[in-house]
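As a next step, we paired sequence with structure tokens, yielding the entry below.
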Amino acid sequence: MQLIGVRDRTVMPDTTVYMQAGDLFYTGGSLPEPGEQVLLVPMPEATWDKEKAEDRLYPIGVIAAVTECMFQDYIAFVTSSRMIWSDLEEGANGRLYADESMIEDKEIVEPFRAGMQFARLLDSYSGFLDNVQGGDVFKKHVLPKLRSVTDLFCMLTIWFRFEEEDRLYLLGEDSEQKRAERMEKMLREALASMELSHGGAVERVMENERNYRETAIRKQIAFLEKQLDEMHPEGMSDIRMFEKRLEESGMNEAAMKESRRVLSRLKQENDHSPEFGLLSDYLDFMTTLSWKAPSWQPIDLEEARKRLEQDHYGLKDAKNRVIEQIAVMNLTGKVSGSILLFVGSPGTGKTSIGKSIADAMHRSYARVSLGGVRDEADIRGHRRTYIGAMPGRIMDAIHKCGVSNPVMVLDEVDKLCQSMQGDPASALLEVLDPEQNSTFTDHYLNVPYDLSHVFFICTANTTSTIPEPLLNRMEVIRFPGYTPLEKVEIGNRHLLPRAMEAVGLKKKNLVLKKGVMEKIVSEYTAEAGVRALRKRLDAICRQAAVKSWEQNGKRLMVTEKNLREYLDDHPIRHNLVPSSQRPGVVTGLAWTAAGGEILFIETALTEGSGQIVLTGQLGDVMKESARIAISLVRMKVPEQSETFSKKDVHIHVPSGSIPKDGPSAGVTMFTALLSLATGKPVDPALAMTGEITLTGKVTAIGGLPEKLMAAHRAGVKKVLVPKENEEDLEDVPEEIRNLLDIHLVEHLEDVIRETGL
């Protein structure tokens, strides 16, 4: 008889089965015809990799008659007896043929016994069968037909899904009693599995119903709460208030996720617990912080220029740079370009011009003072792990101004300090770096915040104390200080009207005669900025307010003669150049945090053994300049070398209570010593600045604008400046350049020629 293999399926006797042609093997490429009988033999999965056909096929199969071939190559078989095959042969057409012999059943079970046994078993699950799909059909139409173990076996294999191992066992077992026992075990396991699946399905249905009900109830509660909130907004609960704010906040995804997590924790806390307060503070900060990126609005350059000119006199370079920045922002539609760093003496308008820039750009203004900050948490914020945690100064300023794109002035970045609490300057790198600040993460918020819309402006008195990595992220704009003429204009235009308004004086109540403002600037102020001038004008207005009240609003006139009556301090004694000077004394120029100042380098030879005596609280750099100057004088005047060797050289810089240091006194010290050695005096109206090398080269210095303004104020007529600072002369006000005779020197020979030594 022809043998056909069936892959991964065990065909049972006395059943009707439908199989696809692709599941049949060893057919020789053609399917059996209707009415033909074949032997269907299982091919278990474990035997698929065998080489020989007899090793792939199960030793027992069933006789099957082909009844019909249907659409899509489906074939219907009616099976009958179980057969053992042997003597397998392969025909010329690729088909397999074998001899078959019927299997004789042993230990026959009595008729109806097996069927009734399993009927009772199934009947015990009648409640279960009533609740499963098709259970009633099984009870009505399947159970009555069970007449033997074989019938039961065949019907159950169709109705239930058994393991292939069990099906092969039932197919091959010749003991009807053992088959019955195996089927009882299989049936119990199948029914238990079905019952478990049914229980799980019922539980899922119940769980879904609970979820649907809970969702519906919550929606009803939310609707009712919303109605109550609209009717009584003042009685809204904190939880509902935060939920409403979250919906309207426009947060990014990370911030919304973190806020909802905190809100969930808040709902579980008692109103009186410390944790409740911490969570509430956090949600209040997050929901009132501006998250929405503002749309770009073009800025009128002419209006911005007029506003800057109206609020500030002078500062030409700073104003031009700000206008350039605004023009670039108009073209790009975003904050772009370098971070501006305004560097200059106190009172020169670095901070106040930031407010004017904000007004010119129609943006909110925020100021953050960084002077003395030594804790990194002041920049990055505190982690929310303890009571008292708060955001950093940057995020706090943005929160207070209520927008995400303010003009923010970071004041005194040169006074940041390192400590055990970290390095604030390093934390500031992320804030000011355009490549990083779009995802700035404050430790208190614990989510990224976009700082790229903020227009940052930094201020400092000097760049020497700013770390190099931080300084590289900023563009330095110098504020050289104001000339006397500019101070007078600022006093008349801005400071005096503000001072009068502050004390309630009208224009008709107080008049400063011509020359008064000039005298206040020249005799009562000694700085590059205008803070001292503002204090003097405030003092005058206060005194004028007292007298105006006492004299019933009588008009007061302040003149140069009665100015002292309105000021409560003495005029400042500036260092002024004398009409003449002895040999060994030369006028020098110095830079201070309050602006420029002149100083006198004094030298003298005293009895001794060739030592160098330095007084005046000189720093290490000035001490080295002094030693270099002495060596150069010995080389220039070799005939005086013996004198310098036998006597002590004393170098003194007056105002000994003030520490002095910096690389700009070398030329002055050399000139003073050369004047001492040659006995020739130097014109005191000739001032100089510059550092020297041992080869006699004059090198560049800093703070040139402030130094030249101090020279003009002290009565200096002629100034020697290093040639390397020639470009810096453009930063000096034209008024000062025109009043001073400035000479550029490159070598000590140029200094000797200009001084006449």
The mean pLDDT is 83.
